[in-house]
Specification:
Blueprint (H helix, E strand, L loop, with lengths): L9 H9 L3 H18 L3 E4 L1 E6 L24 H13 L4 E6 L5 H15 L10 E5 L5 H9 L4 E3 L7 H6 L9 H14 L2 E3 L3 E2 L6 H14 L3 E2 L2 E2 L7 H4 L7 H18 L4 E2 L3 H6 L3 H7 L4 E2 L6 H4 L8 H6 L9 H8 L15 E2 L8 H4 L1
Parallel strand pairs: 1-11, 1-12, 2-3, 3-4, 4-5, 5-6, 7-9, 8-10
The structure holds 5'-deoxyadenosine (5AD).
5'-deoxyadenosine (5AD) binds next to loops.
Amino acid sequence: MTLSELTLDREGLAAAIACEDAAFEAALREEAYRVKVATVGPEVYLRGLIEISNICVKDCLYCGIRRDIRCPRYELSEDEVLASARIAARRRFGSVVIQGGERTDAAFVRKITRLLGAIKAIDTGEDPPLGITLSLGEQPREVYEEWFDAGAHRYLLRIESSNPDLYRKIHPDDPLHAFDRRLQALYDLKAIGYQAGTGAMIGMPFQTAEDMAGDLLFYKEFDAPMIGMGPYNPHPETPLTLSGAPYPSAEKRFSLGLKMIALLRLLMPDINIAAATALEVLDPRGREKGILAGANVFMPNITPEEQMVKYNLYDRKTILRDCPVSGGKGDTHICKNCVFPFCSMGDGLTGKKVVIGYGRWGDSKHFTG
Ligand code: 5AD
């Protein structure tokens, strides 16, 4: 397949996803990068990622912090979250993402509301107050409203798979894990006025090229202003891994991850696309390569190291080992990526000019116009 043969309908996208020709993939990434720069500019926007808790009421079959897995649980205190947010302000990241396991208890909901106020009050000098994205799962509409009113303006809720049959295979079959409930949550977020981001995992068991093409078309149909999607990475103790269901090799999942970013950039040129942490597990410069394939959002992890190691959605040892905030002595590029993102960018990986949008929210152009 060549780039000129690519069409952005279901059939064309599926053909591109299935095509493993290295020259085609490289040309596609190159074109997506060009379209990104031409449409949203060369800037990469930062969001300091704060993983607030790995306690979760959900029992998703692929996830390493699912309710029924036995693992050390943690919850950051309000002071710890604020200390991380102050790091984001000091480093001029512009925004933070608060992500965590799903919880709907009143104490947790109120804690988030208080934190939103306190984060908005952090002194950022010349910059606007920190932008805030929440990623805390499905909540009643009133909770989404409370958090929106308290200052959150973006919310990330992955659909995980837009194919209801596949969704069913990777989740317990009960009302708490119903596909329709998740979809409704996404529509609630949008109606309230959030920039409602979504995404799916890439390279899962049972997932076909048509499914992945369907995910891209779902993003378009939902008119998502931002997308965070990343490769599936097996966690050794989840039911999905233990079932023995086959999934693509690490190498294939990585190239699929980059290809999905590139195709999405062509399909939705003016949205924000994150270079997911899951890419970094598969390649030490995975997130940088995501940027070079058309992503424009990078999320340096600023969770305190002692807890970061417990936010084990999948096997993240490769990231954590190499990250100086977790005490590692690994590759200096990775260290810089974690703590000083992009110090290593443009240094010969491709020589491309990458501009960091320091101190800015970097809201989706698709949303703000
Ligand atoms: N591999 C990749 N991503 C995963 N997530 C959860 N488990 C895995 C896994 N095994 C992702 C889900 C969720 C996000 C917080 O982490 O897509 O939305």
